[in-house]
Amino acid sequence: MQPVNKARWQIHFCVLLWGFTAILGKLITLPAMQLVWWRMLLVSGALLLVPRVWRGLKAMPAKLRWGYAGIGVLVSLHWLTFYAAIKLANASVGATCIALGPVFLSLVEPWIARRKFDPRELLIGVAVVPGVAMVVGGVPMDMRMGIVVGALSALLVALFSAFNKRMVEHGDPLTVTCIELGTGTLFLTLLAPLLPHAGPAFVLPSLHDAALLTVLSFGCTLLPFALALVALRHMSAFGTQMVTNLEPVYAIVLAILLLGEQRQLDGWFYAGVAVILGAVFIHPLLTRKQAPASQPELLGTAESHNVVE
Fold it and tell me: Which domain holds residue 48?
């Protein structure tokens, strides 16, 4: 098999695994705070066992470590709101909201990356508005708070992705991911007592939750991250983005097959999803780049992996 074709299949497999993160978020009975705390702790703890990470930490200037630590705070808030949206609504709603990430990115990246704003990106943002309206109309009233929290999660993923892009050339991907997730774990530990009804960050999970957390942390985070690092060497940025844009599609299909969520949502929801995803797929067509994908560290920390350019 040609390296490019093999890489394409690897990325599709990674996207499928990422699609399971929303499903596992619904199946794990822990609240969002404890779920995210355990996931970040397990992944960062595993990365600390890799000698390459320690070499990267020693070689990285302190100022840069602090920069990635700040991004880690945004990562933790993104994951916290993503899983909170799933708990407040369902996996389909969470996956749909996270598809707004590229739209928010097109608006915030020029400001953060200090580049000229492209009017075409504003058109993409405007194009999703009818889709969002249809999604809201197709969701029961008691789930609409999940949409608000999910949209906040998409904004957060756009913010930390834009900052990551600004610092992309300055650190080893595994080391960057370890710093960001390790900092996120510490931040949530300090944040939990300040949030009403959140409870302590450390709660011993049941055997059922522990098994699912293991799958989430290693099967749906570290495994696809490692595969993606290899696959991105053989794929263009455009090809990678078009494949990773399928993540919400996989998540919604899995939610229908495994959780039967189509019974909770009506046709307006799925029509809105089609509009949002249509805009997301049009965006890379309008701003097509053929340079090799060079931002694998984003794959280690985002649910919305379609923000890689």
Answer: 3-307
CA dist., res. 255 & res. 242, Å (int):
22
Between CA 112 and CA 82 the distance in angstroms is: 22
List all residues 6 or more positions away from 193 whose beta carbon is below 8 Å from its beta carbon. 200
Chain-centroid distance of CA 67 in Å reads: 20
pLDDT digits (tens, 9 = 90+) for 248-264: 888 889 999 999 988 88
Nearest Cα to 307, choosing from 154, 86, 149? Answer: 154
Q: What are the CA-CA distances from residue 92 to residues 229, 261, 270, 308 (Å)?
A: 27, 7, 10, 22
For the chain, the domain total comes to 1
Among candidate residues 111, 131, 95, 158, the one with its CA nearest the CA of residue 282: 131
- Residue 9 in this model has a pLDDT that exceeds 80: yes
Please answer whether residues 154 and 77 qualify as being in contact, where contact means their C-beta atoms are separated by less than 8 angstroms. Answer: no
pLDDT digits (tens, 9 = 90+) for 81-127: 999 999 999 999 988 888 888 778 878 888 887 777 777 777 777 77
Name residue 292's beta-bridge partners.
236
247-251, 284-288, 296-300: least confident range:
296-300
Query: Residue 290 — very low, low, confident or very high, per pLDDT cuts 50/70/90?
Result: very low
* Long-range contacts, 9-14 (Cβ 8 Å, 24+): 10/227, 10/228, 10/230, 10/231, 11/227, 11/228, 11/231, 11/232, 11/235, 11/240, 11/243, 11/244, 12/243, 12/246, 13/224, 13/227, 14/224, 14/227, 14/228, 14/231, 14/299, 14/305
Q: According to the model, what pLDDT value does residue 292 have? A: 46
Element of type H or E holding 90: none
pTM of the full structure:
0.87
